[in-house]
Specification:
The protein has about 240 residues and is α/β, with parallel strands linked by helices. The protein has a single domain, classed as Rossmann fold. It is built from 8 helices and 8 strands; from the N terminus they run ααβαβαββαβαββααβ. Strands 1, 2, 3, 4, 5, 6, 7 and 8 form an 8-stranded mixed β-sheet that branches. Helix 4 links the parallel strand 2 and strand 3. Helix 2 crosses helix 7. It is globular and about 50 Å long. The relative contact order is 0.15.
Length: about 240
């Protein structure tokens, strides 16, 4: 790719993502991802528990007064989890590409700083945030150049000693060409200045949707099988990681 091609490619990818959001609103049953579904509750509990554990071990668990940013907060994102962790609504910041999705979250959290815009050009100063969260955001960005730009911005606004909390697909979904998984190797390449553990998590969604409502214990047993876990969760610290020499 020539340097002068990059802006056009990035702009085209933004338009593709917005068009995909619109397609999902028209064609995907909202019940599929409804937060009250048993599989959604099961998944949310597991990822929140693991995130809190990794943040605590890294010495980066956010406290009240710590500015926290969510990249791609959608209609709600992890904002409610942050409040449950003890943060104030005014500690919450976010950037979301799609204004229709963003308006739902802004109505729910009117005191939070939730903006509509492009995550490849974040409107905050260097080192602003103690915690930056990217959850199921990068897998929706198919263009490698835009992924790199968003990753660079996430690192720029992260404060020294702060952490990136990552949760996303590690494998591609063969039935959904609009997402692409990100494995450990690509995760490390996207964030070369950050360091920390990454773990597999989340029973494959098609299995979870079928099994969790009927036999949660079976779902837990299946989730113990590594190749049935479809996501990565990671806490990547900017600078020295707690416990390292």
């Amino acid at each position: 790719m020539k340097p002068d091609d990059a802006p056009d490619r990035v702009a085209s990818e933004r338009e593709r993502i917005l068009a995909e959001f619109e397609r999902r609103r028209r064609e995907v049953d909202p019940e599929l991802y409804a937060p009250w579904n048993p599989h959604a509750i099961y998944n949310r509990a597991a990822r929140t528990r693991q995130a809190a554990l990794l943040l605590s071990r890294a010495g980066t668990f956010p406290r009240r007064g710590d500015p926290c940013l969510e990249i791609g907060y959608g209609t709600l994102g992890w904002l409610a989890e942050f409040l449950a962790w003890g943060l104030a609504e005014s500690d919450l910041h976010g950037i979301e590409l799609d204004d229709e999705r963003a308006s739902v979250a802004r109505e729910a959290f009117p005191k939070a700083d939730l903006r509509t815009g492009d995550a490849s050009r974040l409107p905050w100063a260097d080192g602003t945030f103690r915690l930056v969260l990217a959850a199921t955001t990068f897998s929706s960005i198919l263009d490698g150049e835009l992924r790199r730009l968003v990753a660079n911005e996430a690192m720029r606004v992260l404060a020294p000693g702060g952490a990136l909390l990552w949760y996303d697909l590690r494998v591609s979904n063969p039935s959904n060409p609009h997402v692409r998984g990100i494995g450990r190797q690509e995760l490390a390449a996207l964030f070369p200045g950050l360091h920390g553990p990454a773990r597999t998590i989340a029973l494959a969604p098609p299995l979870a949707r079928r099994i969790v409502p009927r036999a949660e214990l079976l779902a837990r047993l299946l989730e113990a099988v590594p190749f049935l876990r479809t996501h990565l969760i990671a806490v990547l610290v900017k600078g020295k990681v707690k416990g390292e020499p």
